[in-house]
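Hi support team,

I've been running sequence recovery on a batch of backbones for a student project. Most finish fine, but this one hangs at about 90% for roughly twenty minutes before it completes. I'm not sure whether the input is malformed or the queue is just slow. I've pasted the structure tokens below so you can try to reproduce it. Let me know if you need the job ID as well.

Thanks,
M.K.
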């Protein structure tokens, strides 16, 4: 199961009354590693803490535990969770493998960089034997 949903939130969902804020709070409580990774990357991006020539902030460190990896994979594999986190933090999220997440400005100024980051070439170049079963 990806999220731990309270009976109250489930009832609201059944009535189509869940706000993005409530959904994001559920993600934060259920998948704290993934939430805080995106939060940290968004903060770095907004502070201008990016590599020279890169209009994005990314993570290249593998999660320390399988539980953390699982949280990240569940959050990134869900279109609705990625979209909610993107809206909440005002960024666009791209995901390359079991740990490489990047956030880009949401204003479209980094469309080319997103295309490069998300390209088959970048995916192939980001592979290593250590990540075969991540």
């Amino acid at each position: 199961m990806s999220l731990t949903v309270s009976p109250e939130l489930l009832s609201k969902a059944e009535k189509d009354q869940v706000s993005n804020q409530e959904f994001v709070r559920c993600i934060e409580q259920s998948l704290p590693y993934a939430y805080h990774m995106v939060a940290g990357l968004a903060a770095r991006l907004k502070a201008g803490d990016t590599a020279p020539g890169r209009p994005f902030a990314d993570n290249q460190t593998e999660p320390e535990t399988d539980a953390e990896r699982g949280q990240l994979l569940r959050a990134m594999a869900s279109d609705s969770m990625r979209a909610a986190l993107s809206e909440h933090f005002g960024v666009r999220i791209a995901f390359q493998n079991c740990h490489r997440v990047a956030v880009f400005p949401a204003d479209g100024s980094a469309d080319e960089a997103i295309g490069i980051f998300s390209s088959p070439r970048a995916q192939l170049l980001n592979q290593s034997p250590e990540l075969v079963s991540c």
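--
Follow-up from support: It reproduced on our side and the slowdown came from queue contention, not your input. The beta strands are 57-58, 91-95, 101-105. No action needed from you.
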